[in-house]
Fold:
Amino acid sequence: MTLTVSGLVMVFPILYAFLISFMQGGEVLQGSLWPETFSLANFVSAFDRVPLLTYLWNSLMVSVLIMAGQLVLCSLAAFAFVFVEFKGREWIFYLFISTMMIPWEATMVPNFQTVQSLGWLNSYAGLTIPFFAMAFGTFLLRQQFKTIPKELYEASQIAGISKLRFFTGVVLPVVKTTMTTLAIYSFLTAWNMYLWPLLVTNNEANRTVQIGLKQMQTQEIASDWGVVMAGVVMVILPTLILLFAGQKRLQEGLTQGALK
Amino acid sequence: MRKVELKGITKSYDGKQDVLKAIDVMVEPGEFFVLVGPSGCGKSTMLRMIAGLESITSGELALDGKRANALSPSERDLSMVFQNYALYPHLTVEQNITFGLHVKKVSKREQKERCKEVCEMLGLTDYMKRKPRELSGGQRQRVALARAVVTQAPLCLMDEPLSNLDAKLRAKMRSEIRQLQRKLGLTMIYVTHDQTEAMTMADRMMILSDGDVQQIGRPLDVYNNPANTFVASFIGSPPMNLIDAEMKDSVLVADGHWMTPVTAAMKQKIGSGRVTLGVRPEHISLAKDSEPGFLVQVANVEVLGTETLVTFDFGEATQWIAKWPGQSSVQPGEQIRICVDDRHLALFSAEKGERIVCEPVPDAKKVSS
Structure:
């Protein structure tokens, strides 16, 4: 019972946004909770006012690129930190981790200058590449890789299997679950980015969807909340789909481990 | 078949303390060679150095007469079975067995054939499509063996492969591994901390302690003629009974009241002073009325069916164990009269614990080979 109530409280904002997106003009301001008729007019005008499809596509591309980049770099870095022995390995790792303590805002300006001087403004490169190296992801995967028995690596060394083959053939399949978690995490983080895309893009062709939402809200003096919410629903839909699809996958992974 | 030669092999992790000290040994082709010793004695390190997983600090490792110090593990053409089996959890038994064969340029068809063959040999045919987690401990062990055998490498290294199995299964696998090794003519180097495994499986064994070689030899030679007190107390179950003794006139006196006469030759070897006396449990028996013996108090009795282990107090701080065939009716607390077979006494120097050989041991040569 308590759970249901708190669940409802938690989900109310999203539910309300969903309902508002179907409401006509003045209904929102009258404070009604349930739309009189379920009209799709708001969705149509949301697509009319801002190039929502372009934004959605951009967001998707940027998120997928960041996700892929982070997965590749983090897993390779973590592999090196766990399976490749070199001098000062631990030290470099802690240095790497310590970058987590530097707030993103502090590095924003230098990052912007770098991207600008590379001529990457208004491009996918500028939107994605600065995020490829992620200390958190490396840390997460390193911890996971450490649970793989060293003997597996030694056994493949004796069999003559190359490091790369061991990485793709053994390590990645074994940590599939954690990789999925990290993929969802980085996709969602990238999808929700606002400040950085605002900085490095200044035309409609390259903007992402979060900026589009803000545009909708500020285009007119009195915001048409129905349209804004319609936009919001469009934007959170991929997030929700991903979350539900991923949840199934995660559960599978978890029970697999539990039944060992 | 492969000859493995270690010349002055030393290992040190920190450059100060040697975990292995100048090991010299030659493992003959087709031999089942066991490295045995308590945990932390360096036996696994030695095996890993032979495998190439651990660097060699100094000394030379030769495979078939060729220096192999700098070769990578795969270039040494050997297989290895790990204590935790090291099976790939996401692959089926079949994939586990054939994983890595492509590196050795084995065609897909031959991989299948070889896999089928070893699975039949080890009774795994019904499990080829299963994942390791769906197998029992013994089956996993067999998969690990199959993976080593399928490579057809002439040298096989095993690092405590049976320590995760229960006692019954261990005895079974012991005999299976030995049969497999004979059948395939493998040179095998086998690490264990279990002296029973060493005694039952080895052609020859090396006893290590604290990185030092204590003795190398055939199991029975080691058992009958232990080189020092460490080997005497490590090999054999229950271990050899040891006690300090003192030379007085022409008799050895242990613990003030037990005396045993010594020959003139022995006396000369021992000189004056203290020695350690050793007696195997099976050489202690109940004294018959006519025999000289001495009284002891029984502390514990373990009847095993075919034999009986009797623990008794010997002196103030020492307990000895005697092993008698059959089922004895001796009870704890009872006073019994025992006698020790003088012919089987072993003498060790009191300071270093080294064996004092008093009469020429018939096969002394083999012991020190």
Summary: The longest strand of chain B covers residues 18-27. Residues 360-369 of chain B have pLDDT under 50 and may be disordered. The radius of gyration of chain B is 24 Å.
